[in-house]
Structure formats: C-alpha cells, structure tokens
Amino acid sequence: MSTKPSPAPVKSRPAISRRAFLATSAAAGGALVVGLTLHGRFHHPTSDASQDPFNAWIHIHPDGQIQLVLNKSEMGQGVFTALPMILAEEAGIDFSRITVIQADNADGTGGSGSVWEGYKPLRQAGAQVRETMIAAAARRWRVPASECRAHDSQVTHAVSGRTLSYAALVQDARRIPLPDANTLPLKDPKEFTLLGRSIPHLDIPDKVKGAARFGLDVRLPGMVYAVVAQCPYFRGELLHFNAAKAKAIPGVLDVFDIPTDPDSANKNTREVAVVATNTWAAIQGRDALAAEWKPGQYHDESTESLTTQLRAGLDAQEYWNSTNTTLNPDIVPAAKRIESVYEFPFLAHATMEPMNITASLQNGRGEIWSPTQAGAETQETAAKMLGIDKSAVTVHVTFMGGGFGRRFGVPFNHQVLQIARRIQRPVQLVWTREDDFMHDRYRPACMHRLRAGIDRQGNLVSWTDRIVDTTIIGQDDPKQAQSYELGGALDQPYPAQYFRISYVPVDSGATRGAWRGVEISFNVFSVECFIDEVAHLAQQDPYLFRRRLLENAAAHPVAPRSNFDGTLADPVRMIHMLDLATEKAGWGKPLGPNRGRGISCFFSKTSYLAQVAEVTVKKGNIHVDRVVTVVDPGRVINMNGIRAQIEGAVLMGLSATLKERITVKDGMIQQQNFNSYDLLRMPDAPQLETFLVEGGRPPGGIGEPPLALIGPSVGNAIFAATGKRLRRLPFQLDEVSS
User: What is the CA radius of gyration of the chain?
Assistant: First the structure.
C-alpha cells in the first residue's frame, strides 16, 4: 500500500444540475466529455442534453479542472468519493483536481450496488480518457503512443522525458474518436496508486461547515410549507376535520383534503394538507384540525394477532418452495434431530433527517428537490401524476440524513405534487418525527422454523426452513416474494443431503419496505444461530463444526438447488474468513465468568464475511464487549470508506438485535418518537476490530452484508455465556422459549 499522503479533500458541488452544467461547460468551449452507463455503452454525448442516456459524465477542461457528474445518491455511504477514485485511478487523473457534481434525476441507489456495479464501467471510461490523452500527446510529439505514459493528469514521453498536461491536450483530444471501451487494456492492480488507500470523504468538509445542502435546507422564492394529517389507523378513512380552526392559526394559508393514494380505486381514503408560511405554523394548524378517523379493515391487528398469524403460517399450505429431493427431509433417517423457531418484529428506519421534499410547478414544468434514493423514479411519478412528459420534470437530488431504504419516495412524492398543483407556489413538505414513525415502510415481521437432522458423525443429513413473513416487495402480489425474500436462507452455505426451503406470506395493514440489508437481516440470523444449535446437538465446537461442513462442501460440491440459480459461497474462501476471525479474536481462550464468544459467517454481494462477538451477561443485562469482523470484499476502493460502512452496519445491526421493535395495537403503530423506540446509545457500543482481506476480485457490495452478522454472533455468544438460547429479537433474557 502506498505511503503517499492522501490528497486534500475535494469540494463537492451538489447544487449544480447536470443539465445546466453540460450547457455551461459546452459554452465555455472545449471540455473533453465522456459519457458512460453502468451497462457498458460509451459515447461522446450528443448536444441534446435532455436526451440523456448516461449514468455519469466525465468533463476535462482546458484549465485542468475535472468533473464527474454522478448519477448516484450520496447518503453517507461514500459514493461521492469511491466512484471518482475508480475513475481517477484508471484515467491517470490527479485526484485533487476532481470535483463531483450530483446528477439530476439520479438513478436508484441501494442494494450495496453502486461500487459493485460501477467498478468496471468507470474503469473502462477512465481507460478511454487515459488512452485518448496518450494518443493526443503522441500525435503532438509524433512518437509512438506505446512510448507514452499517463499519470497525475499528464502524459510523459518515456524516451525524451517531455510532459504535457491533460489541460494542454484537451483540444487535441476532443478531435480524436474515443476508442472502444470494451477492448482497451485496464491497469494491472499492482500499478494502483490511489485505490486501496484511506481517502477522506469528499462531502465531509462541507457537511462539517454546514455548507452542504440537505433536503430540509432548500429555500425558494415565495416558498410555503406543508404538513399532512395522515390516518393513524392502517387503511382507515377520514371522517371529519375542522378547516376553519386550522385556518385560524396565524400563518396558515390553506387547508384541504387529498387522496391518500391517487392511484387507488378507493377514493374514500383521504388525508388533510395544511399549508402555511412556515413549518411550525403548519404543524400547529394540523393540531387544530380536530380530525376524526374511522379504523379500516385492519382495525383489530395487533402484535399479538400478527404473531398468531405468523405462527399459523409455519404449518400452513406453502406458497412456494425449493428443494433438491422428492422426499420429505424432515422424516428421512437421521441419528439426531432438532427444531427451532425464530421471531422478528417490524422495524422502523429512524433516519436522522425526517422525510421531506420540495416541489415547484410552473409553466407546464415540474421541478423537485428531494433527498431521494430514486430520483429517476420520482421523475416518472411526477410526470405521470401531472400528465406531462418526463423530460419536463427535473429532480434535484440533495444530500440526505440517512437512507437505509426509506427514501424511495412513497408516499411523500405524491403528497407534495398534489399540494403544489393546488396552491401553484413552491412548497416544501415536511414530515415530523411522529409522522415518520407512524407511517414508515417497516422492515417485515417474520418467523423462521428450521429443522435439521445429523448423522452419527455430525454431518447434515437434512435441512428444512419454513419462512413466514409480511412480505416486502410482494405485499400486493406475493408471487414477487419468492426470490426477493429468501437471500441468506436459500443460499446458505452448509451442505445437506436433503434440502427444502418453503415460504408463506402473511397479510398485514402495516406498510413494508426495504430496510438496510432487507431479508438478510432476519434470514442470516436464523441460519447462523441454528447452525450453532446443530453444532451443540453434535457436541462440537461451533467454529470447527462450520469449518468441517464447509470442507465437505469444498470436497463434494453441491449441485444448484432447485429453483435457485444464484451463486453459492466458495467454501474455501469462507473457511479462510472463519480461520482469520477466530485467530484475531483469540477463539478458545478463556474469558471468565458470565462471558462468552459467538461466531457467524456470511456471503453476499460477492463479499465474504466472518465475525466473532464477545459478550458479558450479568445481573440481567447484556453487554457486547468486542466485535471482530473480517471481510473479503474483493478490491478495496477506499479503505477509510469501507471500514466506515462495515462498522456502521455492525452498529445498526446491533441496535436491531438489542433494542429496536415496532409494535401494533388496534390497527395502529404504537411507537411515535425516540422516547418509545429505543436505539443503541454510545455507552452500548462495543470495541470494534475490523480486518480486510483483498481477495483479488472486483469489489463486492459492502453497505448491507455486515449488518446480518452481528445478531447471530451476539446470540451465539449469549448462549456460550449462559447456556440460554434466545430466538426472538430484540433479545430479552426473560424470553419464554417457544
């Protein structure tokens, strides 16, 4: 790894729109512009910027400045830094010269996919820049291009020692056709001088100084503010509200009802918009509405009734299954058998910045400012609602104070558009913290029932997993759930001669959505805790038991499971992760009374992970003392960024493991703010030790996978410390075993 000091942070300018930037840069006369998509199409862009087929743009100017116009949303995960690093490395660009421009209408950002998907296209585009600059210099000098090298935004002729800056070559480079990106050679990773280093995040200085613009910072001339009174009951109806009382509040400008879902056939579900000169007046106006609501079809739903439904689903007719046998794995001959049920509650996203969005509709055009993970989807939603062409809608994507899958635009997109259409003024819609807790898109509630049989040597003879949940993506059509809900369960790495996994969806009035890691947050917990239980049944050490099963998988590869065409973990890589985690954690060394170690491992988004947690359980309290995580993420882009992602995910997962829970009573969410929704606090944070092993592969996804490990690591450590197996989240030591 290079010992060269990191370059100074580069100023990011998210306030500049891509379209405006393209126009001004073209007028400035003379940038080399390269457009790229994540699907491998590379071209000189057309002059019509409105017909934008690209995910990103690269601009190199005659003054030496270099811009990357980025079609991803920055929500603290570091893409503003990592993606430009990839480009700069391959293009031979001086990283301190790069400025990042946030694209309008930014593409969907989530699923740990930004670096994973963008790595090769950005490298190929960088190679185009590099080779075009080399070609321009070689023509100027009349020497073979093979004698020239690019580095630090300049080209050097190896024989004569002459150099030319990229800035000096821009005009010549613009006249050279771009080479085919798919045929260009890419740099040998051994030559990397930037990737793998710890680079400060480019957006941090402006955030520390308060100069960065988040959604709540947007201010427009003549802008007003709005809040919406939403039905507290699942799918309930508005009966009455007192608009006069609300309008009597100083600053309130208008009060009117809007459809809860403009696309729904049921127009009886409505809510009330309150518009005012400031947010506080709007909130006070809403409080004065005296709105009355009628409970909906889920009026009797409660956490207890939902638990009953989930438990009934364990023995209900399965909706979908995957198996490698025509036999019932639960009754094939086995020396010993075990069964366990794991339970998971709804969870809120609890982002620090509440939901907000600003819209202005004028002259047949729509302009939106949103801290969104899906700018393009917001653009399409607005065009459809307003009955205008998509090209007439611009979504300015701002920084956001936390995403985690919450900021995909529902339902605040359609709320602000209905309000803006009515009042014909720029309007900023703000959700209070109570709004967000009571109308979140919750992580699903779920149950797993796992059964396993082992032979006399402790080998897995059979494995069955019945998953019952309030489906995420399939809440309107459960058919969609069959592949989306099963990550971390269907692709678990442990070989069993007879394997079967089945799925049953359960209905709920609570709206569900993507929550960091989505299904892996409960599926991996179930698998990794249960494999510990199987190890205990076999009277074997949990680490060595896993290792032996994976050795068997390496020696006798398992055929792809029925209905499953994904990639199973490479057992050799997984063994290496387990070995390293136990070595770093001192597995087997005595810890003393009331203390225990637990282990887990996982493969996702082409990244391999293993973890050991140490806990102390004393006087009815659980404290996680130390967490050792080892990760093979493939190529490391930004050492600083990847550590932050891993450790942030571990802490968020630990919060869900020990603290967080959304409950339901009488068809309503009970938690309304942080006073009733507990989160991990700083005194609860363990010592974190993170070790990275670069596996010589392209980078994998990293934002979500580490979250899945901490729950089972801690659960298994609690068992080691106490002999008590906790199977319900969040952990409670007085839990009654099911």
Answer: 28
Task: Give CA–CA dist 272/238, Å, rounded.
Answer: 9
DSSP-based three-state secondary structure for 157: strand
Neighbours of 33 (CB within 10 A): 20
Q: Looking at this protein, which amino acid is placed at residue 362? A: Q
With beta carbons less than 8 A apart as the criterion, state whether 313 and 468 touch: yes
CB count within 10 Å of CB 551 equals 13
The answer, yes or no, to whether residue 34 has pLDDT greater than 50, is yes
Task: Please report, in angstroms and rounded to a whole number, the separation of the first and last CA atoms in the chain.
Answer: 51
Please tell me what DSSP assigns to residue 299. Answer: T
Strand 607-618 with 595-604, pairing: antiparallel
Q: What is the dihedral of CA 24, 26, 30, 35, to 10 degrees?
A: 110
SS3 646: helix
Query: Which pLDDT belongs to residue 707?
Result: 97
Which one is predicted more confidently, 332 or 20?
332
Asked if residues 502 and 466 have their Cβ atoms less than 8 Å apart, the reply is: yes
Angle between helices 542-555 and 520-537 (to 10 degrees): 100
- Quote the tokens at residue 677: 């929704």
Local structure of residue 198 (DSSP, 8 states)? -
pLDDT at res. 109: 83
Q: How many residues belong to the chain?
A: 738
For residue 278, the tally of other CB atoms under 10 A from its CB is 12
Give the mean model confidence (pLDDT) for residues 2-21: 40
233 versus 1: which is more confidently predicted?
233
CA–CA separation, 729 vs 341, rounded Å?
12
Number of helices followed by number of strands (H, E) in the chain: 17, 28
Question: pLDDT tens digit string along 166-175?
Answer: 999 999 999 9
> Among positive and negative, which fits the CA dihedral 380, 382, 387, 390?
negative
- List, in order, residues 6 or more apart from 618 with CB less than 8 Å away: 594
Tokens of 255: 């009060």
Does 556 score more than 90 pLDDT?
A: no
Residues 337 and 261: their CA atoms lie apart, in Å, by 49
Kindly indicate the confidence band of residue 283, based on its pLDDT and cuts at 50, 70 and 90: very high
Contacts with 595 (C-beta within 8 Å, 6 or more apart), sequence order: 614, 615, 616, 617, 625, 721
Q: Is 587 in contact with 683 (CB distance < 8 Å)?
A: no
Nearest 5°: the CA angle 474, 475, 478 is: 45
Q: Which of 283, 264, 265, 263 lies closest to 273, judged by CA? A: 283
Q: Say if strands 336-344 and 498-505 run parallel, antiparallel, or are unpaired.
A: unpaired
8 Å CB contact between 409 and 397: no
Residue 315 neighbours by CB under 8 Å, 6+ apart: none
Q: What angle do CA 111, 117, 122 make, to 5 degrees?
A: 140
The pLDDT tens digits for 597-652 are 999 999 999 999 999 999 999 999 999 999 999 999 999 999 999 999 999 999 99
